[in-house]
Amino acid sequence: MKLAFWKKSDDTAGQVDFGRLPRHIAVILDGNGRWAQRRGLPRTAGHKVGSETFRTIATYCRDIGIAYLTVYAFSTENWRRPQDEVDTIMSLLKRYLLEAIDTMERDNVRLRFMGDMTPLSVELRELVDRCNAISDRLTGCLCSICINYGGRAEIVHGARAFAKDCVAGAVKPEDLTEEMFENYLYSAGIPSPDLLIRPGGELRLSNFLLWQCAYTEIYVTDVLWPDFSKEELHRAIASYQRRDRRFGGVKR
Ligand code: IPE
Ligand code: IPE
Ligand code: MG
User: Fold this and answer.
1) Quick check: is 244 catalytic?
2) Residues 33-79 pLDDT 10s
3) Which ligand is located closest to the Cα atom of residue 70?
């Protein structure tokens, strides 16, 4: 009896209703540095393991039928970190891009990059463009990787683009609606996240998807990103499925 109870509570997949999954999951890939430091390793070691965790979780999201996955990999503020840490993250990104260009079609995962790519090296920018172009031809799970991304920067970028269209006479300021403005964001065409997962335990958004997360359900876990597993994902989805999303209305 005791064993049966233990088994049940440990059966994380059993807690998930796979017929009612969130359409869009966003994840703040946080906790790599602490993971490494707790093991007496350099922070960069955490980023390496974290990139493997990303591969596992992205593949699993595709397998269970999550339509959109958006991950925060490098923020507009992360340039403040020591140069060797930034360099390691950029070299992991390059490795990931090269691998993705070879495997995306086979895996039918669309990879798209969101953020301001201008400070990246020419080589990285070319790889990002190639990846985005391949994605445009595919139909599978859309995985958006946010690099040099900031929610405020994204809104300013959108506001500038709208202002330019006004000056060009294509639109009028009074025509602007929330729906129209969404088309000026990096995330144009992608529905808002249903669930935002933050590993690493911090209770903040850290400038991630400020516009898009207006009604997103938030799940924070102390588990650090390199230790994040399918079981943790099940726990997050099960928690989401117990929520009552009211969108300002009353309980259904
Ligand atoms: C997240 O892990 C990865 C990036 C921000 C690039 P951190 O490096 O922020 O890990 P902690 O929060 O210091 O543990
Ligand atoms: C958020 O994590 C950015 C990414 C995970 C890419 P940070 O580690 O940069 O956030 P803060 O500094 O703890 O708010
Ligand atoms: Mg952090």
Assistant:
1) no
2) 999 999 999 999 999 999 999 999 999 999 999 999 999 999 999 99
3) 2
- CA-nearest residue, atom 6 of ligand 1: 74
* pTM of the model as a whole: 0.95
Over the Cα atoms of the chain, what is R_g?
Answer: 19
Ligand 1 pocket, residue 200 CB under 6 Å: yes
Over the stretch 236-245, which tens digit does the pLDDT of each residue have?
999 999 999 9
* Active-site position among 17, 32, 63, 78: 78
Using CA atoms, how far apart are residues 116 and 146, in angstroms rounded to an integer? 9
For residue 31, report the phi and psi dihedrals to the nearest 5 degrees: 110, 5
Residue bearing the CA closest to ligand 2, atom 2: 30
Please tell me whether residue 218 adopts helix, strand or coil conformation: strand
Does the annotation count 30 as an active-site position?
yes
Residue with tokens 């990059």: 113
CA of 30 to the centre of ligand 2 (A): 6
Task: Give yes or no for a contact between 82 and 47, defined as CB atoms under 8 angstroms apart.
Answer: no
Placement of tokens 């929330």 in the chain:
178
CA distance 199 to 228: 8
Question: What is the number of alpha carbons within 13 Å of residue 136 lying toward its C-beta?
Answer: 6
